[in-house]
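*** Fold description ***
***
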Amino acid sequence: MTIRATVGGAITLVGIAGLAACGPVETVLITNVRIVDGSGAPAFEGSVRVAGDRIGEVGDLTPKRSETVVDGAGHVLAPGFIDTHSHHAGGLVEDPEALGAVSQGITTIVSGVDGGSRLPVTELFDDLSADPVALNVASFTGHG
């Protein structure tokens, strides 16, 4: 897992297989963060435990023995954001890390919203399946 603090102070988790500096780990505890859980409730202080590629626990958590602990330094930790009007899909084959989107906390993009899309759309998804990218991708089928 790579943890990036964005300009807005949000924390973005990229690739949850292991901390880049520490190698693979089973669990990571991110402490000292303001958690926005996507429910519409106000942000709250706490910690988030990531187990493998899943969020395991959220709340007032104590580190486990031999668990990697990351100090979130009071930043906001939130679920990924969806860019519903994206033009990133055209460049994902060349830039699968999509750092321009991922560093903003975007985890899902929707392309083809201006009436143009790669045709047939199945070719786009075949390419993205062959070489997976850092984002989830949805696409409208273009009318133009």
